[in-house]
């Protein structure tokens, strides 16, 4: 695989929440995997597009943030259980960190994740927000 293809694939996964699904056992994975941990060599993995909807499985509120994130503190980092079953860790945005509850419905949004000064690198990635 060329670097260009690899990078493109990485971007695709990052922007579209693409993981993989095993056609043998039916389990879905995010990030995507090359080998199904359940089926090993009998596994049959193919790319799988997640809906971007899920629920808060667990979360913690960061009040003492590292320097790069000081401006956004307090913020919540949550493990999201996607509708389709896979779990991922992400930052919750647009929410009152004191009113979060396990089981709250969330959906994926795109946000600027980092900005290093005026001419710095800006990148975007998925985060999740609570739907009430
Ligand atoms: Zn499998």
Automatic annotation (TrEMBL):
This is DUF35 domain-containing protein. Residues 50-111 form the ChsH2 C-terminal OB-fold domain. Pfam families: OB_ChsH2_C (PF01796), zf-ChsH2 (PF12172). The lineage of its organism: Archaea, Methanobacteriati, Methanobacteriota, Methanomada group, Methanobacteria. Residues 13-42 form the ChsH2 rubredoxin-like zinc ribbon domain. PANTHER family: BLR3430 PROTEIN.
